[in-house]
Structures are given as C-alpha cells and as structure tokens.
Amino acid sequence: MKIIVLGAGIVGVTSAYQLARAGHEVTVIDRQSGPALETSFANAGEVSFGYCSPWAAPDIPMKAMKWLFMEHAPLILRPRIDMSMLTWMAQMLRNCTSARYALNKSQGVKFYRSRSGSVSLWPSR
C-alpha cells in the first residue's frame, strides 16, 4: 500500500519507518527542508481518546508545588511576572476544586463522543 505520512518529526519518522518495515511504500511530507527541524514544537501532541481527564484536578496545586523543584516534572513552570501567565494560573487554580473537576470531566465525555472531523482512506492500485 502507498502511504503518505505528514510530518518528519519523531512520531512521523518512526511511524514511516515501521510502515516501511511492514512492506508499505511510504512518503514523508514535511513543510521544512529536512527531518526533525521542528521536533518538539508541539511535543509530539497526541489526542488520547482513551484517557480524557481535565488537568485541573483537586490534587494538582500540591503536586505543582513539588514539580517546581523537579528537573523532569510533567508540568514545568518558570514563574515570572507575566500577566498572561498569572491569568492562566489563576484560571487553572479556580478549576482545581472537586465541583469544577466533576463538571469539566462530564463535559469531556461530550467531546469524547462527538465526531467533528473525518478521515478518508483510499486503496492504492
């Protein structure tokens, strides 16, 4: 089968490699002139439909305080005087209550079950 992989970052290149190993004819397309030139720009973003849970949870403020002192924390903040960051942090903290977490989690179920896009596949000849 002929397959096009969009993006020559780590996910695109490793996907293309595995597809080629499986016997497919693979073409990798990237807007940059070579592979890995925008690697980690979006941190290999993944939409995980099997796990859709809000980040703003009741236990996050205490965890975040510990993460400030960890080199490889799952959430890294570089505290500075920046109004947009302070506004974001205040909004995040307002959503870290049990009630807001339950509401946000219930809204996520609607996202999980919605279909707002499409994927089209065509067999090669």
From TrEMBL:
<dbReference type="Pfam" id="PF01266">
    <property type="entry name" value="DAO"/>
</dbReference>
<protein>
    <submittedName>
        <fullName>D-amino-acid dehydrogenase</fullName>
        <ecNumber>1.4.99.-</ecNumber>
    </submittedName>
</protein>
<keyword id="KW-0274">FAD</keyword>
<feature type="domain" description="FAD dependent oxidoreductase">
    <location>
        <begin position="2"/>
        <end position="121"/>
    </location>
</feature>
<dbReference type="InterPro" id="IPR036188">
    <property type="entry name" value="FAD/NAD-bd_sf"/>
</dbReference>
<keyword id="KW-0560">Oxidoreductase</keyword>
<dbReference type="InterPro" id="IPR006076">
    <property type="entry name" value="FAD-dep_OxRdtase"/>
</dbReference>
<keyword id="KW-0285">Flavoprotein</keyword>
<comment type="similarity">
    <text>Belongs to the DadA oxidoreductase family.</text>
</comment>
<dbReference type="GO" id="GO:0008718">
    <property type="term" value="F:D-amino-acid dehydrogenase activity"/>
</dbReference>
